[in-house]
Amino acid sequence: MSRIQKWISVGILVLVLVGLGWQYAGWQKQVERHQNALNFWQVQVPKVQEQYPEFNPQDIEQQVSHENQQFEEQKRAVYANSGVILFLGLLSFGAVVFIRKKVEK
Questions:
Q1: Separation CA 11–CA 60 (nearest Å)
Q2: Which residues contact 52 (CB under 8 A, 6 or more apart)?
Q3: Alpha-carbon gap, residue 65 to 92, rounded angstroms
């Protein structure tokens, strides 16, 4: 591998790691949001109902179920995005290595 190929490969690796780090940070925000939403529906809403009997929210079980379903969809999206980042990184690395071999022939 030439010097320029090595530097391009290192750049690709850094970009892949940054992309995965970005996905991880986004995932942590989603986990925190999910926990806050569950806390709201399971803890805070019953407290408000005790203080204000006229407060009648939608079905709490339905809302918790909807929140869990939404969280599962978001989880799949994170896995898909991370897979795309890895695939594009490997594809780019392969292009850097094999283009030189094609040009030399």
A1: 49
A2: none
A3: 41
What percentage of residues in the chain have a pLDDT greater than 90?
Answer: 45
- How many whole angstroms from its chain centre is CA 9? 25
Quote the tokens at residue 70: 């939404």
**pLDDT digit string, tens, across residues 23-71:** 999 999 999 999 999 998 888 888 888 888 777 777 788 888 999 999 9
Q: Give the distance, in angstroms, between the CA of residue 24 and the centroid of all CA atoms in the same chain.
A: 6
Contacts of 60 (CB under 8 A, 6+ apart): 41, 42, 45, 46
Model-level pTM?
A: 0.70
Give the type of residue at 91: L
